[in-house]
Amino acid sequence: MGKNLRIKSARAAKDMTQKDLADAVGVARQTMNAIEKGDYNPSVNLCVAICRVLGKTLDELFWEEEDL
Amino acid sequence: MKTKVEFDERQQQIRGEVFSHGFFLAVALLTLNAILNRSGVEWASAYHQNYLTLLLLICSTAIEAVLRGAYFNRSESRWPMIISLMLIVLTLCVFHISDLIHGEPLITGGMITDACVSLVHGIFFTALIIAMIVKEIRERREKSE
Prior knowledge:
The complex is a heterodimer of chains A (68) and B (145). Chain A has 5 helices and no strands. Chain A has helices at residues 5-13, 18-25, 29-37, 44-54, 58-62. Chain A is globular. The mean pLDDT of chain A is 89. By secondary structure, chain B is an all-alpha fold. Helix content of chain B is 73%, strand content 3%. Chain B has 4 helices and 2 strands. Chain B has helices spanning 9-38, 46-67, 79-101, 114-144; strands spanning 107-108, 111-112. In chain B, strands 1-2 form a two-stranded antiparallel sheet. In chain B, α1 (9-38) packs antiparallel against α2. Chain B starts with 8 loop residues before the first helix and ends with a helix. The model of chain B has no long low-confidence stretch (mean pLDDT 87). Chains A and B meet through α2 and α3 of A and α1 of B.
């Protein structure tokens, strides 16, 4: 699993730090860091919470097109 | 803002995996100790055997937990914990040096002594401190990225 740069850029667009986003969705900053680095697969509930805070859809932040 | 839970989903996952490893390590260590005893290798008194097995288990589990990012509380800094552990190690060093000055051997009749146990304490706690410092440095780098 690669880095999730889409979360990082959406977060930066909202001028939020990892800590701000982590606080907004109720997790630790380390968890948000692990998600952005691609070290941790969040649950659907957490994905939805992140999307709501960043004003994006699940597809925009988490869907990965496979190279066929 | 969502209500903060003490341990979020990733923390619970890490803790579950670490405790699971700890359980299997406990079984392995107790089995190894039983085999050693059965084959006539008495490396310490029964009390010290059980105590050091438990200490090794706790210490290795704690090191794995620290390195994988489990936290004891939501505080960002580990330094209060590191400094507390350093004070414990310092105290143990004083005890150990005192034992050595009084001429207490580390091993008697093939079995480790109280003096050796305080040395093992020091080694385990030092390993834990090193793990915490390494993790702290890694997290600082991550933060600055």
